[in-house]
Design goal:
About 75% of the residues lie in helices and about 0% in strands. It is mainly α. This is Lipoprotein.
């Protein structure tokens, strides 16, 4: 599945590059049309009229490309969601699908989905989730115990940052729902340029998500290897908990989501 996904992303990236080249040629064509109109209004009008079907066809193709990429992404997410949900190794409690009580209120989703969200954020890799579980077992959870507050803060931030990847992904799917895609297709404000821009942002979002998942897995694996040494383990986890490259990538995902939302709102405000 990973190889298939990589091939799709590479091919779609080539399509985006080709579309950018086409748009560049279209822009040059408009300049030439403007010059020719100085030689005769009738001739210029005729050429512009001939260009209308081409532009409409190109816009339709841009919508098709966007829809194709959205569908591919959602199919990928569905495969992840259905990937043996019942066999997920729970984060802390072996006898429950709930996260420990002390962390039940962190983050942005109901507590009964937290284990699954973290599982998805770690690339539905059971080995990595088990490694995370071994890391969490090194922390003190009771708030009245020594280091309890500090430990709860570290782990809460760790799980919160993992969860953000899933949260932003779900938000993106809502922003690019079938209803929104239909509104984009029928909107008078939709152009080849802004539709292609949404597709580009989506493509970048998907790449950023894949990179973050790999970063998370690398950090968790490294922390698990040194979990016997508390200082070294915390040093590894700080790559996710503290500000740094990973937090910047999470911020980039949010920025891409916001850019997509802004463009979708701009286009769908005017529906013909």
């Amino acid at each position: 599945m990973i190889v298939k996904r990589r091939d799709f992303m590479e091919r779609f990236g080539m399509v985006l590059c080709m579309l950018v080249l086409v748009l560049g040629c279209t822009a040059d064509g408009k300049v030439r049309d403007a010059v020719s109109m100085r030689d005769g209004r009738a001739k210029g009008f005729s050429r512009m009229s001939m260009l209308v079907p081409f532009l409409q066809k190109t816009r339709s193709k841009a919508c098709d490309d966007l829809k194709s990429l959205v569908e591919h992404f959602k199919e990928q997410l569905l495969e992840e969601h259905l990937s043996d949900i019942n066999g997920i190794p729970y984060l802390i409690d072996d006898n429950s699908d709930f996260i420990v009580r002390e962390l039940a209120d962190y983050g942005m989703v109901p507590k009964n989905t937290k284990s699954h969200d973290v599982y998805i954020a770690l690339g539905h890799d059971r080995g990595i989730v088990k490694a995370l579980k071994s890391i969490l077992s090194q922390f003190t959870w009771k708030v009245w115990a020594n280091e309890g507050d500090r430990d709860a803060r570290i782990v809460s931030l760790l799980l919160f940052n993992l969860e953000q990847v899933v949260y932003y992904t779900n938000s993106l799917c809502n922003s690019l729902s079938d209803e929104k895609l239909n509104e984009i297709r029928t909107s008078g404000a939709a152009t080849v340029e802004n539709i292609t821009q949404i597709t580009y942002y989506l493509f970048a979002f998907m790449q950023a998500r894949d990179e973050l998942i790999e970063d998370f897995k690398k950090v968790i694996s490294g922390a698990a290897l040194v979990r016997g040494n508390r200082l070294e383990m915390e040093s590894e986890l700080k790559k996710i908990v503290n500000d740094g490259k990973i937090k910047e990538k999470i911020g980039s995902m949010y920025s891409l989501l916001r850019d997509i939302d802004n463009l979708v709102d701009l286009i769908t405000k005017v529906v013909s």
